[in-house]
Amino acid sequence: MSIGKPDGSAIPGAVLVKLDEFSSIFGEEYALKKRYLSRVKQYVWIVLLCALLATIIGFGVIKIQKPVYQATATMYVVADSPGNSFQTPLSANDSIALATNYSSQILSSSVMDYVYQSDPHLKARGYGPGDLLADVTANPSATSSTFQVIASASNQNDAAMIANDVANGFQAYIQAQTQQQLNSVRTSLQNQMAAAQKQKAALEASLLTVASNTDPHYTVYNSELNDVYHTIDTLQQQLIGLPANATSNVAVIQLATPASAVPAVKPNLLVAITAAIGLLLGILIMLLVIYLDNRLQGEDQIRERLEMAYLGAVAQERALKDNPARLDDSTAQEVADIGANLRLLGLLPGRKEASQAPVLLVTSAQVSEGKTTLATALAAVIASSGSTVLLIDANLHYPTAHLSFGLNNSKIGLSGVLRAQVK
To answer: How many other C-beta atoms can be found within 10 angstroms of the C-beta atom of residue 229?
Structure first.
């Protein structure tokens, strides 16, 4: 809202007065905080709207999507299993690392093919190896030699069945791999035994061809034969030490049940996540709108962009709007400060400085911004200081200045004066 002389003469710069929520501005830092705080209050509805829409979308997703249940079976790993002495020795400390390795191995195609081929229930329910790879995950423990087999399905029964079948199938798979390793070791020892027996028979036949035990060949053959005997004894001990059947070093310690299957995505959590995303998106949109808003928001911007002098601010109080001609002490002081600033700028001379009364124009580019309120209050404050003031309401269609003084509009007004001047 600007105040100036109607002819524009002797004005060192356009002058702006503002009806604001606060009566005055204290310092640049306060003005900056106030400016952005008012922007946030102005556009906070964007944040609330985005959060609300995101929450509604979250509820919609819950209603639309099919429920997915997860069931969990727990497996335990013992790295130093005493029944598999033919394997590379491992310590108890290796169990956690082995459990982590198994949790990765269980998700391989070879394991899922083995599980599918060994369990007819999966085929009967329409699940293939590809489905198992997509619906099963494994989660190793960081503190114990266990890992969980987690299966997802559209119903609780299938989720529990898949988790248990994969867990039992993996235990059988590891046992089959171990048994294959045991069979390979046994076959290797048996082949070595057969070769040693053949070598033994050949050395015994060679000894029979020696005429006397004083022959040097006799000593060589006899020494080689003793070595073969020792090899045969060692191989026999190793074969005897092999177990008849290998044991798996991983076992299922807890099977899943349909009752233990839980929803994969909790509705409350999904709604909270979507609401948080909406809140974050709303904050970003609000900041973008504030950044793109080029409207003037503070005294410093008025001086920098418009090169206008800033007279002050007047609080938007109800008493000011109801009766601007009779103000309370705080509001009257604010308007008086504006009058003092007008005198400092030379727009409103003192009573002893001018023989001709100055003319001030209060105008604005917007309707209902407080032009009449400010003009009436300013006239009342200046008049209370002893000056004579003439207040003219130039709103020919909807004049309201007379209401502040309890007058009616039945008497002659500005339009009547103008018509009289024309005549």
So the answer is: 13
Q: How far is CA 85 from CA 47, 182, 247, in A?
A: 66, 10, 10
The angle formed by the CA atoms of residues 358, 359 and 362, to the nearest 5 degrees, is: 140
- The neighbouring-strand residues paired with 314 are 19
Residue pair 323/376 in contact (Cβ under 8 Å)? The answer is: no
CA triplet 239, 241, 245: central angle to 5 degrees?
90
Total-model pTM: 0.51
Judge whether residue 6 has pLDDT over 70. no
Is residue 300 within 8 A of residue 106, CB to CB? The reply is no
Of the candidates 59, 76, 67, 251, the residue with the CA atom closest to the CA atom of residue 152:
67
Phi, psi dihedral angles at 190 (to 5 degrees)? -65, -40
Where does 108-167 show beta strands of DSSP type E?
Answer: 136-140, 146-153
Rounded CA separation 277/289 (Å): 18
Banded pLDDT at 14 (limits 50, 70, 90): very low
In 3D space, the residue among 160, 154, 66, 170 whose CA is nearest the CA of residue 121 turns out to be 160
Which residue type, as a one-letter code, is found at position 4? G
Determine which helix (DSSP H) or strand (DSSP E) holds 231, and give its type and residue range.
Answer: helix 216-241
| Gap between the Cα atoms of 80 and 89, Å rounded | 7
CA distances to 1, 250, 382, 395, 404 from 23, rounded to whole Å, are 16, 77, 19, 27, 21
Q: State how far the Cα of 103 lies from the Cα of 138, in Å rounded to an integer.
A: 5
Question: Rounded to an integer, what distance in angstroms lies between the CA atom of residue 114 and that of residue 262?
Answer: 27
139-159: pLDDT as tens digits: 999 888 899 999 998 889 999
Q: How far is CA 218 from CA 196, 197, 198, 208, in A?
A: 19, 19, 19, 9
